[in-house]
Structure formats: structure tokens, C-alpha cells
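Predict the assembly for these two chains.
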Amino acid sequence: MIEKFQEWYDNRHEYAKKWKEKTGGKVVGYFCTYAPEEIFYAFDVLPVRILGSHEPQDVTEPHIFGMFCPFCRDVLAQGLKDRYDYLDGIMLAQSCLHLRQAFTSWELHKNPGWSYFLPMPNHVQSKRSVQFLKEEYKLLIEKLEELTGKKITDDDLKRGIEIMNKARRAMKDIYEFRKQDNPPLTGAEAMYMACANFFTDAREFTEVAEEVKKELESRKLDRDPGKRIMLIGSENDDIEYIKMIETLGDRESVGCTVVVEEHCTTTRSFWTEVDTGIEDPLEAIAQRYVDRTPCPSKDWPDRSRLNTILDFAKDYNVDGAIVIQQKFCDPHECDIPFVRKHLEDNGIPTYFLEFDVTVAAGPFAIRTEAFLETLEAEDDLF
Amino acid sequence: MAEEVKENDEKQEFWRWTESNWKNPDLKWEDAKIITAGIDVGSVSSQAVICADGEIFAYSNMRTGSDSPESAKNALNYALEGTNMPESRIDYCIGTGYGRVNVPMADRSITEIACHARGANFIYGNEVRTVLDVGGQDCKAIRCDEKGKVINFLMNDKCAAGTGRGMEVFADLLSVPIVDVGERSFKIKEEPTPVSSTCVVYAKTEATGLLRKGWEVNEVLAAYCAAMAERIYSLIERIGIEKEFAITGGMAKNVGVIDRLMKIIKMDPMKTKWDTQIAGAVGAGLFGYTLVQKGKGRK
């Protein structure tokens, strides 16, 4: 059953197209995990996250500044190449300028029909941000009414909350299995799952995830887990990289398993649920997005993310952390020295790597392998 | 009068350095309990080192061919040449270098980062704390402890400018044998401004531009060596230099780059009697020895 996640990852467009055919509903693409999926589900709209395809491309050069991150280029390339031609609209919840450029370029050149920019507050640490966001959500709702010709009630919002909470809880439960000494799923499989959640109807996703939970109870992987690694950093769905480092051990060198990540593609986006104890569902949703582990573009003046990272590292008993980010991702770049220091002060070695659209396998392999070698505690080599 | 640059009329390969092998005349491998081999298949050169009970017994240093397994075999055969030791006598073999997974006779592979630190620890002594390895297409700055275990490391990213292969191209462009580049770069009246780019692709434009301006070949060499030294420095500056400082790899033999680098660092590099290019293979051979001793390797 767990293979289903990869199937969805590989066939994200076919899935969304079929979903439209089957339900007659509308599909909206979103650019950042601050998009409140609950509200889309309340309208019976399918929200799908737009991710890149990790292929070299030459269509974004005229539109995006050279020192913007490879992820925003890859995302825009998907639009310019008409991979998402089935979308009924696009939306961006403000996080960083790079992704906003991809959004505005897409809006300008591909005429998505419906598009919306949600000014997600940058200062999430402000006490006023929940109220601000709630008011903004009201404007989003008006726009969604235009798109769908529907009105929604609090019950619809509560239904949306339940749909997303269930999916997120199922993923958290699956992450629990990764705490085992020899996790019954690899980091690559977990990444397939987290991304599949972006591409599918959360209800269908949850059904499969619940089956996978049962499957994992008795699943054993015939591999040496090697070093327990945590990945930390910006958007990352570079599964090829994860597969590569998880197979280093196949050739008589130090191997590893990615046991947890702090990326917006994984834990940062799904770890927290909406508090159903809050009476006003819109406020509850706003509270959730303000409280979730922030993107570093919003994580100031306090760097609240540092302790979340350390807690993950401890809970998942990691041997080392690879701080990996999209090249030119300024918000993450600002955080690197603090993240590394915080972990290293707490006895967790770190190594830094920088992603591009495609990853140079050789240089990345040797760096990762050499880092893993330094983690050998009981050293047979000395 | 500026020296004339030959237009490759004799097809002389100025970049080519001499391949070599060596065996320790004082060691009898027949008396050794454990024989291990380390094979370092780099992008430009390959080395094989045979260790007898943790001492260097023989080694070879050759150019890497287009086929990694073939290069590994050639290096090993060349190291064994004239030793009467059959290959089957080797108890454990470790592959390292960028071709480390393509060393057919290897029992396991270990990265050249770990191997260079271990190798430097042996060929320079255990006081070494910072190792700079400038190879064919990589430049690595490694911090290590007294056992030669890696603590931290950095490598050049994405671009191989300022590494060994770049120097080879430059030597060829100026028709100066690679082994003479360092010495000749000091036969100048005044230290020139470093070239603006160590990019191998732009090297020709850079060099011909300066020659046309009337620069002597030696001055151009000096400007290129100085630029390489600065580029290498920017890497080791990021990792921080702790004494003692040792250099491995082919570039360690180029005084033109190294002396200029050490002037920036304001430090004396450690000295060794060994060929600096064998450091990675030495580390691999010694790791093999430790593994066999601990019963972790086949014997």
C-alpha cells in the first residue's frame, strides 16, 4: 500500500485531472504551505501544491532574476510549460519574494482565470496576527465564492478542518514508526507520502495512510539503517537525493536512513492540527497557521524554529543533521549559523549542502558520505 | 623580449607529469602478518599503496584513464611490479577517490576526505590538524584530530577552477612543463596582479591577453599561481586553520601556488619525505590495516 504514495507523486497531474472528471469540482494550485487548505475543502475545491519537476529547463530565464532560488524557477517552469493547464485557479499565501515572483509571473503569462494573493502576515509572533489573518480569510472566502458560486457555513469550515486534521494526524502517526531502531519505512518513502498529501484529496489520502499504518505494524525492511539522519531546511522534495544517501550503505560504506525532516514539504506543513476546541472555525484555522512551525521568513524576532528542530532531533534520536536548502533561499541562509550552532551545542553534528534544480550526484554523494563517516561513534577505522 | 609560445608544434604534452612507483627496500613483505592495499582513483591521477603491517611497502602514482576499474588495476599492478608479491597476498583492499565505487578488487570504499586526513596523519605526523588536499578537480580543506579522524571539512562547490586540472591546462597553454611551473613563476622581477579568473574555460583568453600585452610567460604563470592561491585560501579561511598545516595532492608539489598560499596564511607548511599524491591511498591502506586488526576485515 505504501507504494501508492509514490504512484501519486509520479502521477500528480493525472490524479488531479481524474479528480475533476470524477467530482466535477474545481482544482486550485497553491504555491506555499501557508495556503489554508481547510477553507478550500469547505468549498469542495481541491487544493494542490505546485512543486517543481527537477528537470533542467530554459523557460524561466526571462522572468526570474538569476539569484532567485531554483525552487521558484522550477515551479514557474511547470506553469510556463502548461503542466498545470487543468487548474481553475492559483493562489499564493505570502512567504517569500522568490515564490511571489513565480506566482506573479504565472499570473501574468498564463492567465489562470482565478488567482488570489493571500497576505499571510510576516510577523506571526504578533498577538494581532490571528485576527489579521482571520479577516484576510474572509476576503479569500469572498473570492472563493466567486470561483465556485457557493456560500459556505461554519459547518463547512468545520468539515474542512476535520478533513485536514485527519490527514495530518495519519501522517504524524506514520512518522511515529520512524522512531524505531530500524524504521519500517525509508526517508524516501516518507517524503513520497508527505508530497502525495499535497497532490491528492485529503480524504482519499487519509484512507490510504490508515492502511499504510496497519501495514507498517508488521513491515520489516531488509536493510541496515546505518546512521540516523535528519534533514533541515527549505522546500525539499528531492527524493533522488534522499534515495542516493539511503543507498550509500549498499556498497560497503557507512549508510544512513533519513528518520525525520524539518522542511516545509514535511513536518513544518503537517505537524500541527487545527484546534477544534476554538469555537469560531475561521479563528481556529488562523490560529493554526500562525502557530505552526514557521517558515524562517516569518520566524522573527525570536527564532522559535530552533527548539522545534532540536526536539525533533532528540525525539527521533538522530546521529547527525544535514542542513540542506535551495540555493539563494535567503530566509534559510540567515538561519543556517543559528540552526547549526543550536544543534552542535546540543551534541548533534551538522553538515551543510545547497540544492539546485538538479543535484550533482557525485559531489553530493562524497560530501554526505564523508559526513556520515565522521559520525562513526565506535570507530572501527581508528 | 617576451618568450615565444609554441603552437603545440611538437604535440608535446606539457601537462604530463612523470608516473612513478616505489618499493621499500628495507621491508620484507614475506614477514608481514597483514598486507593491505589502498587504491585512490582520482579524476586526474590514481595511486595504489601496499601496506605491510601498517607500513608503506610499495606504491604507484599514475594518470587516471577513461575507465576507473582499469585505472585501479593498472595502479595496483604498477605498485606490485618488481615486488614479487602476488595480488592474492593482499588481505584487504579499500577503494577511495572519486572512482572509489569502481575499484573492482576493493573490499569496501571510504571517501577520500577520510583517507586524506588519515594519510596526512601518517606521512606528515600526528601533529597535523588541518589538511589541504588539492587534487585534479577537487580542493578540500579538512580539520582532523590527532588520530587523523575528520572533524570537519569543506570542498569546492560546483566549479573546479583553481584545482590540478586547471593548472595542467594552463601549463599546456603556455607550453611550460607542469613540473617547472612553480619554479618559473618566481623568476620574475615583480609579483604581478593575480589573473582575474582561475576559470579553466577562460584560461586561454586570460593568458593570451596578458602575453599580447607584453607580459613574460613567467609573469603570466605567477599571476595564475597567485590567483589559485587566493582561491584556495578562500576555502580554507572558511573552515579555519589550526596548526599544524599539511598539504596533500598534486598541487602540494607546485611551489608557485603553495609558497604564495603560505604567505597569505602566514604559516609554514609541514614537510614530508613522501610523495604528497599518495596520501589518500595511504589512508585507505591504513584503514584496511586497522579493520583487519580489529577482525572487521577479511583475513
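Chain B has two domains: 20-125+276-293, 153-265. Chain B has a mean pLDDT of 92.
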